[in-house]
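Recall the central idea of this unit: under ordinary conditions, the amino acid sequence of a chain determines the structure it adopts. In this exercise we apply that idea directly, starting from the sequence alone.
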Amino acid sequence: MSSNGEREQWGSKIGFILAAAGSAIGLGNIWRFPYITGQNGGGAFVVVYVAIVFIIGFSVMLAEIAIGRRAQLNAVGSFKKLKGGAWSIVGWMGVAAGFIILSYYGVIGGWTIKYIISSWTGLMEAGAAGKAGDVFGGFVSNTFQVVLYQALFMLATIWVVYRGIGEGIEKYCKILMPALFVILLVLIVRSLTLDGAGKGVEFYLKPDLSK
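Accordingly, the structure predicted from this sequence is:
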C-alpha cells in the first residue's frame, strides 16, 4: 500500500515481467538444475522438464495473472472476492507455500552470501585442490554461521518487500535480473571452455529416452 492508502501498481511492463521472471528463475537455475539434470538422464530430463513448464507452469502462471488482475487483491482476498466460501482456502494455501519456499531458499540464500565472501578468502584455492566438499561440510556444521548468513539474506528480503512494489520489488528486479542473466552467460561461456565440454553439451541437449 502507498502512503495515501491506495494500492500500488507496477510502474512499467518490463518491471512486472522481470518480477514475474524473478519468481521463477533464480538460484535453482545455477545451483540445483544442473546436477538434477545430470542425475536424471540429461537431455531426456530436459524434454520432460520443458513439457511440464509449458503444460503446467505456464497455465498456472496465466491463471494467477488473470485472477490478480480481475480482483486487484492479494491471494486470499482474490479468491474470497471472486468465488467466496471455501475457495479462500486456496489463497491461504498459496500463503503457506510461500512460507515453505522462503524457509528453504532462506537457507540457500545464506549459503550464497557465504560463498560470495569466501570466494575472496581462499575458496577458489580450496576448490582447485579438490577440497570444496570439505569447505561446505565445515560451513554447514557451524550452526552460528549458517544462521547468521540466513539472517542476512532474510533481512535483505524483508527490506525489499517493505519498500513496496515500485521502490522495492520492481526497482531491485530491474537490477538483479539483468545481473543474473549476465552471470548465467559468464557461466555458460566458462563451462564451454572446460575439458569434456562437447560431451557435456551432447548429454544435455541430445535426449536418450532410455535414461
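The mean pLDDT is 85.
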